[in-house]
Amino acid sequence: MIDKSRYCLLTLLFSGCVSSLALGKDKGIGKEDPFHSSDFPDGFMFGCATAAYQIEGAWNEDGKGENIWDRAIHTIPNYIDSNSTADVACDSYHKYKEDIKLLKDTGFNTYRISLSWSRILPRGTTDVINVAGVAYYQNVLKELAKNGIEPLVTLYHWDLPQPLQDIGGWMNETIVDHFQNYARVVFETLGSQVKWWITINEPSQVVSGYSSTTFPPNAGLHGVGDYIATHNILKSHAKVYRMYDKEFRPTQKGKISFSFDGPFVKPKTDSEEDARAAEQAMQFRFGWFAHAVYSSTGDYPPVMREVIDRNSLQEGRTKSRLPSFTPEEIEEIKGTYDFLGYNHYSTALATFGATGKSPSIDRDSNILFSVDPNWPSSSCDWLKVNPEGLRGVVNWIRKEYGDRIPIIITEGGYCDDGRIDDYERIAYYDGYLKELLKAIREDGANVLGYMAWSIIDNFEWGSGYSKRFGIHQIDFNDPQRPRRKKKSAEYWQQFLHPKA
Description:
The chain has one domain: Glycosidases (TIM Barrel). The chain is built from 17 helices and 13 strands. The chain has helices spanning 4-15, 52-55, 68-75, 92-106, 117-120, 131-146, 162-165, 175-190, 203-211, 225-252, 272-294, 302-314, 327-333, 361-365, 388-401, 423-441, 487-496, and strands at 45-49, 110-114, 150-156, 196-201, 255-261, 264-267, 340-343, 347-352, 367-370, 407-411, 447-452, 472-474, 483-485. Strand 12 (472-474) and strand 13 (483-485) form a beta hairpin. Mean pLDDT is 94; it is low at 1-31. Keywords: Glycoprotein, Glycosidase, Hydrolase, Signal. One of its GO terms (biological process) is carbohydrate metabolic process. Residues 1-24 form the signal peptide. InterPro entries: GH (IPR017853), GH_1_N_CS (IPR033132), Glyco_hydro_1 (IPR001360).
């Protein structure tokens, strides 16, 4: 629960009775200082993020093809909490104008959306292009432009067309060409309306579907499938970046990059060993995908190569479970970014300790994770509130990949039961935004934007509709899917456009 003093502060923020923080007089940002969006750099992107599968619904309408989430949900009993589906979800396929109005009314200047690959290419390949699917996204982008909202568009947010998974999905190297062909269709049909692109969202989650049996496509190839899929994801990203840079950037003038996820990992204690554990955890979770793109040397983090090669040898393998890039591939992948997208929700503590007996990323990384019991909880077990972690991870990125690398926080948010009076969510955003501002103003971080997850409650993957992240509530029992403003939307309104 939020304490009374915090509640009073938030009430003042709602009423507009607190003046803006005078950063010109005091560069430091006090813990209880009121502040507004104007304290951030000019042109800062404040927006909300969504994903096609989580909000659109219309799962088989107007020519859309089946994807891996459709297949899993429709064929595996009890796969989702309460046997929920995303067949209708928020019905944003039909109600996108209403969602965009919510963004406009709240005061956001950016909307991060994803495209459904199977809505545009029902078979995953370019032999069949769904004109209705392309038209839908063209209409969404037109509506955003009409309302003065900048689109930040993700090409892939987990919903792989099922026909591509039938031939191996991200484990089949042909996915590199399929992804490039899909991206070309998107750039040709939508590129003139978009200046900000993300190729692949949260690759660590994508590849978990090839190691686990609880995330599509449920391959269950621990410590093998995820490494192979990662290899192809990195090559796919690079190929699309190089294509955009050469063929589309000269006329469309856009920027394109990756979006990663994961907690900021701190040492569990002040010991040197735990400090090494925290760094190793960051390399195995974040560096696994980012090092090849953002580091000066490219390739996987050296610690991953050393550990996985050694473990593979000890397992009696003649070849490492971690694939190798050719020198040409390392150069092709390295530097394929215009910014760094990062989804940040929480923080974890690390100490060394092998997990499990079978080969896996967890066993390879040799990390035991925990949390500080003093950190406030949310309705999601994995989400503990530690605002300082956002500042910490921004500075870790700067240290690891370069001091002035442009960063966009492409997701961040708080999980609860969907209540209207969501004061804990307000406290979450208030704390995290203040820490982000410290990273910018006090540390000199080059942060371009922050995307709140999310503008509306939506389908939360395995949790169905039992976990809510929206600043607007949706009644999923009502076929009309009515939207209703929460207190957190009022907080954002006042933060973005404080009353005089």
